[in-house]
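Incident log, structure service

09:12 report received: a user says their structure output differs between two submissions of the same chain.
09:20 pulled the input from the user's history:
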Amino acid sequence: MMPLEREISTLKQYCFQYLLRNHEKIPSKKVSQIYEISDIREEFIGMAKKKNLVDDQFFSIFGEIFIISNLYHNLQNNNNNNNNSNTNSHDSHNTEDDMDLDTTSSVSTNTSLINDINNTTNNTTNNNNNNNINNNSNNINNNNEINIPQLTTNTTIDLTNIQKINLSGLARLTDISIQYISGYKQLQELDLSFCTGISNEFVKHLSKIPLVSLNLFNVTSVNDNTLQLIASSYPTLKRLLIGGCGNITEQGIKSLLKCTLLQELDISHCKKLTNSAMKLISFPCLTYLNASWCFDLTSGDNCFNKIAKQCTKLSTLRIAASAINEQQLIKVLSEAKKLTSLDISFCPNAIVNVDSKLFKYMSSIQNLHIAGCSFKEPILRKIIDSTPHLKDLDISHQDGLPWSFIESIIKDQSTLSHLKTLNFSLSKFDKFDSDTLLNIHSLTVFFPIM
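09:34 re-ran on a clean worker, output below:
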C-alpha cells in the first residue's frame, strides 16, 4: 500500500498533469470554463471522494474545483438515495443513515447551479474573486425534489454567488484553508463536520460571511469560546450542528442565546452538558432539537419539560439515552403542542404503563423512534392505536419482538394507509416473515439480521 504522503503527492501531480494534457480544450483559466468539460469534471468528482488526501496545500491549488466536484458528488448521492426510497426494503446496515434525522433526513435539497453563459461571461472577466457557485440548497422544510444540473455547450457554472460549501470529513484542513473560504462573501451554509484539524477560533476568519447554517458535528476543537464567536458573528444563524463537540459546557449554551432566530440545534453527544445547561435552551424559533446521548443528564429533572415550555414551535425532539421517565415525558408531550417527531430511543422507562395518560398526547406524532426501549407488546400496540398519523416507526435494537405485533400492523388497513417506514434493524423476533412484508409495496422496511 502506498504511503499517505506519497499518495497525496501523486494525486497532486496527476491533477496538474491532467490539466496540462487537456490544456487545448480549456477556453481559459476560469474554473467555470474548465469545469464545463465533462471528462475533467468526472475526474475531479472522483478526486473529491478521496477526502483523506486533501490538505491545505492541495486545497489552495484546487479549492474551487474541489468544492464544485464535492457538490456534484453529494447531489448525485442524494439523488440516488431519493430514487432508492421508492423500494420497500433495505439492508439493516444502511438503517442508521437512512432513518436518522440528525443532519440530513430532515433537510431536503433544491439546487440551482446553472446560469446562461451569455449572462455570466461579462461577470467573470477580470474578476479573480469569482469563486462562487449559485446554490440554494438544504433549505429547512423544503420539498423532496433534487434537481441534478446538466451542463451543455450553452450553459456555464456561475461562480459569483456560492451559498453552500460542504467540506465534511476533510480532517487535514486547518485554519489556513478556512481563510481561503472567507473569499466566498455570499456563503450561507457551511459544513465543516469532522474537520478535526481546524482550531476553536476558526470563526474569526469567517466573521464577515452571512452564515445561516453551520455544521460542526464532531469538530473536537469546538468549545465555549467557539460558541461565543459564533453568537457574536452570526446573530441571524438558523441552523447549528455541534453534536459530538465534547468540550461545550453550560457557558457555551448561554452564549448561543443571542442567536434568537435559531431553528435547528444539535447538541447530541456533548458529554459535559448537564440538566442546568438544558434548561437554558429557550430559542423562540426553535423547531428541531437533538439532545441525545448527553450522558451527564440525570433522571428526575424536568429540563426537557422546560425546553418544551420555552420553545413553543418545537416540532422535532430527539432525546435518546436521556434517562427520561414516564412522568417527565407526559409533561413534555403536554407542553409541546406542535411536536410531530420524537426520539426516545434507549429510554426504557419513558413508557411503562399501558394505561398511561401520555398516550392521549401522542396523536400528532408522525415520526417515532423507540429503538432499544424493549417495550412489551401491549405498549407497542397502544402506541400504534394512539398515533393515527404515524408515518415512520423505529423499533430497532429490540430483543424478543413478537411477530404477532407486526401482523397486527400489516392486517390493519387503517394503519397501513399512513405508515410508510418500519425499522426492525438489529432486532430479534420469535419469528419473522419477510415475504409478507415485501408484498406491501407502500411500506419501506428495514429488516432485522436473520
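09:41 both user submissions now match this output. Likely a transient worker issue. Closing.
09:42 reviewer note: The CA atoms of residues 175 and 202 lie 6 Å apart. The chain is about 35% helix and 10% strand.
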